[in-house]
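[job 0412] stage=fold_complex status=start
inputs:
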Amino acid sequence: MVSTNKDNVLVVLSLSGGNDGLNTVIPYNDGHYRDFRPNLGVPADSVIDLNGEIGMHPTMLPLKKYWDEGKLAVFLGIGYANPSYSHFRSMDIWHTCEPDSIGTEGWLGQVIKELDPNNEGQGVTGVNFGRGLPRALAKEGVPVASVGNLETYGLLTGIEGEDQRAEALDLFSKIYAPTVGGGFVSDYLRSTGTYARIGADILATATPKYTSNVEYSSSAVGQYMKNIAQTHLADLGTRVLFTTSPYNGFDTHANQAQLHSGLWTDVSANVDTFVTDLREHNASDNVVLFMFSEFGRRVGDNGSGTDHGAGSVAFALGENVKGGIYGVYPSLEPSQQEEGGNLKSSMDFRQVYATILEDWMGLDSNPINRGVFEKVPFL
Amino acid sequence: MSTHLFGLVDVAFNYSHSVGRNEFNGTGFRNPVDMAIDDEGKVYVLNRSYENRPDGVHATIATLDEQFVGEFSKFGEAPGDMYWPTSCALDSAGNLYVADEWLNRITIYDGDGEYLRHWGESGDGPGQFNAPSGIAIVGDTMWLVDSKNHRVQNYGLDGSFKSQFGEFGSGNGQLNLPWGICLDKNGLIYVADWRNDRIQQFNQAGEWQATFGMSGSGPGQFKRPNAVCVDDDGDIYVCDRENDRVQILAPDGRFRAQLKGDHQISGWGKSKLNSNPDMIRQRTMAITHDGGAYEKAFANPCSVRVTENGQIAVLDHTRGRIQVYVKEKEPVLL
Amino acid sequence: MAGSNDIALMAHLLRRAGFNASRDEVEAAAARGYDTVVEELLNPAPESGVADDLMLRYHPTYNHPGAIEINIQNWVYRMVNTEYQLKEKMALFWHMIFCAGHSKIDSGEEMGRMIQMFRDQGMGNFRELLMELSTSPAMVYYLDNCESHKTAINENYGRELLELFSMGVGMNDAFNYSEDDVKATARAFTGWNIAPPYPPFPYGRSPWEFRFDPADHDDSEKTFLGQSGNWNGDDILDMIADQQATARFISRHLYNYFVADEVPVPSWRQTPPKDEDTLVALEQAYFDSGYNITAMLRVLFNSDGFKNARYAKVKNPAEMVAGTLRMVGDHREEIKPGMFELSQEPKYMGMDLMNPPTVEGWHTGHEWIDSGTLVERINFAADYLGRTDLPGVRSMISRLMSQGDSLSPEQFVDSCADLVGCLNLTADTREQLVSHAGRGGALTHGSDAERAEFTRRSGEMFQIIASTSEFQFE
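[job 0412] stage=fold_complex status=done
writing structure:
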């Protein structure tokens, strides 16, 4: 596919485990918040105020400048009706837009299919950073590379010695070259092997080209945000870049005060580094970063942590994002809470998807969202 | 005054309360494997967790009246880290010794969990061990079960090797993947001879004295017993792990009683449920269905300790809690 | 003494009826003889097949594991280590047909118990297996039978029982049952429910229990496949088990799993099977034995259709992972850390064990492979086959050396392909590998230096073979 670095690009950071929305964007003046969070309430004087009513967790300080610049959109009460409290199921729902039946096609897999219907992107139109393909990127016939580590990604990485490996890859190309009369499955395998090698070769060019003045942290989020920057800056035609924070890390059932602070310190610092990196390379204009989690957590703390809940928060960040607060904070009033002590979601996640799909990727959102959802005007 | 009933002193073991809940960190335990309790009732719990949740591997400090004190160490191989912790014991200065059966080392922390030092050498020679499991400290001596070499070793607390006894087998004095160890007030050594389904008693010279139990699930029989403890009366407490019970033997080895678990929800457990009202209802429905049997019962009890003030603490591996019992010499009307 | 044909046939049997084997095991089995080994596979003891007590000791979460990851880890460990390989292979077979997934069930332990049920019942009577399935609390929940009531039925289980678990939609272009039969089935299974379990907090879930609620059961008359009566679920199972369509459906699945890749299930109504004769023999065994799966497997493994179907199937990810580990001999002796990461490999290759994408299961055959999963498959197998310190690989290299003081490139390539499971390389692949081997110079192992180089080149050749498209088959 012919690419210019001005094609719009979507970066998604999935916060795995169920981020506690209530302690991320905090209704710090709400008396109920104090009542329900006797052990975990963030003191009002430490939150980063956004509008006099709500504020961000103190560890999110690196993101404040984007708020001040008007580049950070905050979505309140995001979720879906009849929430699932299973990590897997709820993540699947966010990934497939299928809350009622089990879906197999990912929303971003469909995006990649629409953007690159003939697979001219050699398998790098969409790239996942992490092992194993998240369902968001799954769609039959859409090759998406899953990159565990961009610096070492490739075929036959276990062969030691540069010359030996180069020779082995050369051999690989020959044994996967098209042949006559092998039959359908054999032809399929040969072309798939060839695709895999070309895709790996393309991605392998990203890290040698990359130079930067910024330093990502050595955490998984830091390294994958760096890999995303490297891939974007290499101008390979990649339009969708996806990564997931360490599996279930946000699942803060206990000792949350310490864990949650550590998680947001890590995420905030690396997101800031990422945007700074792109800005220094003059490559941030065409990027939107979307951050979400599969669910929020219970309103009440359990002594030292919080358990699986519903309505939460999500964020979008980018030069073209219209910063601000979108939606209304769900009421913490006990009678307004949902079954089980949860915030009632006031915005469907597919409303945000609709905006991204229509106004950023230039696609019809209804088939992907499997329904019509009112857009949120943040782009 | 106790009396006799059917040939045994009629001592009762009454459930007192529980400590803990299942949790990867903070106010709970995750697949705890052993504990040590100091004179003030402060309890150190080793959490083994499992491979995809290395964040659950650490030690928790709490009290037997369920106050959370803190946690220390983490999963890893660096000095002070834990990999496959198996057993722990306190010395008279209040330092905690932790055996790690994958790293083949003994790590020493102070009473607040600060790393001090470690020692240990892998192998099967004298002064080497392969998968240390149970440890017991008496004075300036550590008795260590060298499980994969099927023997018991004696070390100074600085790791200086003194002696060893035992070999692989199923005869008297022979061992098969032994696990827990303790000493009674007379200095006799009790070893949970895990894969032989029995407890063996040795003197300090390593000479076999007695064998208690055999394979099975009846009174006085064991299925993979892994921990043993003896109180000042000489009564022997055994975690009969795969039978999901603690058996109490009289000093001569006769079966006295079994504990199957009598758990009542703990304070930490309550605060967990209070923030999850739907689960309060689900739990109530379940209790209506089974009369509360499931929650009461031990599930792979893995460590038993008798405290200075006579409490019997049982670490309940799969449920992440400690059930505390009291040995009642005076009659108590339930 | 087993000849090379016997060894190749035995390697084939152990790949299909189990999760592969080391070269030493293949040769030992070949020496016992094909018929003997088939009977060994068909007659596992009721015991566990792995040292459960050691697992409880070194991975203590083995006791009532709640987390799904531990259940998957335990399963992959079992695939690699169980003495009763066919029993485990059948557990996977039924999991790939009787699909239920963790993303809905949300209890790792219930998924593990369902697989244990397949392990225990998967080689027995098919009607009994359907009974176990219909009373499996995880399945009752997964397909909403607990939401199906006398007053308002939910057809989900009734439909999938007929369509995906027993009869199939149709064959020979005809339909096997009607929508009314689906409704009758759903009504017959009303009241098949689950007793309330303990929630996960604060001490972990209790195992789920099946419970029949007579008051919620629709006991009125129903007509199923033309027969009328006050059918309960077990009556329906009796009738299902006796259908020709059921015999055909199970036979075709067995063929697809053990012999050669078939077209996807939704095409079965229109597309005739690849090997009608073998299917007819399997169906005959099904009825002759009173629906006994082991009897069908005996016919299958002794059929020429099976024996000749070498490398006619794309390995599924579990076969790739467990088969590679069994061949190279890692995680087969001492229980050690690292099984969790390994147990995630099938997921990276597109098979999230215990969490199939839908009730229809995974798309198999060449659909296991796309450019992402191919990279995972190749790198996994190549990394392990290149580890010349592992016992299985060491043994393969010493066999290579024992073939002569100096090997020609042809001998070297042919022997390497033979040692990784009697692999048949296509002529052009073989030619490329021979020419690669030829460029490396003489293959001798007289001196220590030569031995080291021979070892390195052997490992490298195994790695290259693992990267071939031929190696993707089994």
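[job 0412] summary: The longest strand of chain C covers residues 192-194.
[job 0412] exit 0
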